Amino acid sequence: MTNTTTAGDAPPAVVARLSRLDQFLPLWIGLAMAAGLLLGRLIPGLDTALEAVKIGGISLPIALGLLIMMYPVLAKVRYDRFDTVTGDRRLLLSSLLLNWVLGPALMFALAWIFLADHAEYRTGLIIVGLARCIAMVIIWNDLARGDREAAAVLVALNSVFQVLAFGLLGWFYLSALPDWLNLSGARLEVSGWDIAVNVLIFLGIPLLAGYLTRHLGERAKGRTWYESRFLPTIGPVTLYGLLFTIVILFALQGDAITSQPWDVALIAVPLLVYFAVMWAGSFALGRAIGLNYERTTTLAFTAAGNNFELAIAVAIGTFGVTSGQALAGVVGPLIEVPALVALVYVSLALRRRLFPRQCPAPPQPRSPRSASTPTATRKALMPNDKPSVLFVCVHNAGRSQMAAGWLRHLAGHAVEVRSAGSAPAGTINPAAVEAMREVGIDITGQKPTLLEYDTVEASDIVITMGCGDACPVFPGKRYEDWKLEDPAGKGIAAVRPIRDEIKARIEHLLAGLIPTN
């Protein structure tokens, strides 16, 4: 039986392919926030216990959660591709402009527009705007299928500027600019060394760990093992770390948030406006200057996110733990987490609409009524002249290779054919090679290939043959799951029926792709 689904057009089917944690991510985050708030409200002295030991001015449990959360994502980064990011001046210059010129200026304006009569909250909000994100943005970027390498480079760039510019910008937006505009200001005394320690801990440690893990893992076991076996194993740790961090973060400030709901709502309004305007404006800028979807997404999330850990630490250290400035810093993640989770889904939805060449509209089987006008049907189904099909199985040594061989043979140059495996073997199954040779198709020149996001992303139709959840799901793709017997370990007599069943399926697939005369 063939199960067909189109990501974006049939959400329940696509969601079913994701892990349980990914399927209900907004729910888990909401529950984590609620659990943290309740723990902070119901357990006396919990905040004091959690704050007893600090690293870089941050509670030890939060510090551990952040490190655990960031490590798996940074272990996925292809560090050998950094040169492709550092050479992209459009991306780098746009990021610097958004993060260090427009972002702080926008937060300053919103703070004065919405909190003109609330000096403490206004100051706290401006501090949040000065603290550019170096941690959780990596998670949002990864969930939205952004460019991991670009995210790592931009976060590192933000870290350098954070050390150099945070104190200067604090003086400018809290003292100098208000004086020039005849507004009431405030003084902000910040240690550059404390900021450097903060950056070193929360970016330097997981970045170094991720780099060493990839370097040593690939050297010991090879890239195939590292990306197909090791990374899927540690992947869920990211979201576990995220949920743990959220619980602890909100437990620390649960009493402050729940005891002043109207003040929280007052602070939340400009924050919501800020996240929406910064993300949308950055996304629009990325598309306007010609960035692809991945880098546009990375630009948007790195510009919209803020380093609330640093903002809270600075506000508490300068104005006190019970100050309005500290409360404004605490409300930051309360609004940022759900807002940026929602923007992850917005980003994925916009991908198909705004980047049609990178995320083609999925082809659909022709109905009997439309079969009478094949040319019109063909144009409606495929926005490009040449559809692309990807066959995926575990080892890319048998079923997917035979399917790719049949499609190349029957479609000629009318279809672009790809195949890959979630754990590719060293060579193609000899029985599969012999079975295809019997029908005049030579697949000896093919090699098992590792399944990568880029391959799925470039394909219109993805046909899986037992690779489980290893195949990533993208909006705008048509997915089919062919239930075929695995030819591994079988002789030629047992492989022939599998070969013939694959041929029948390929012929049926072609009937919906290429019009017949």
TrEMBL record:
Q: Which GO terms describe its biological process?
A: response to arsenic-containing substance
Pfam families in the cross-refs: LMWPc (PF01451), SBF (PF01758)
* Limits of the Phosphotyrosine protein phosphatase I domain: 387-512
Which locations, inside or outside the cell, does it occupy? Answer: Cell membrane
At the highest ranks, the source species' classification is: Bacteria, Bacillati, Actinomycetota, Actinomycetes, Micromonosporales
Membrane topology field: Multi-pass membrane protein
Q: Which gene encodes it?
A: arsB
Q: Which UniProt keywords apply?
A: Arsenical resistance, Cell membrane, Membrane, Transmembrane, Transmembrane helix, Transport
Source organism per entry reads Micromonospora zingiberis
Q: Which family does it belong to?
A: Belongs to the arsenical resistance-3 (ACR3) (TC 2.A.59) family.
Region annotation Disordered: where it falls in the sequence: 359-381
In alphabetical order, the GO MF annotations are: antimonite transmembrane transporter activity; antiporter activity; arsenite transmembrane transporter activity
- Which SMART domains does UniProt cross-reference here? LMWPc
> What name does UniProt use for this protein?
ACR3 family arsenite efflux transporter
Mark out the compositionally biased spans (Low complexity): 367-378
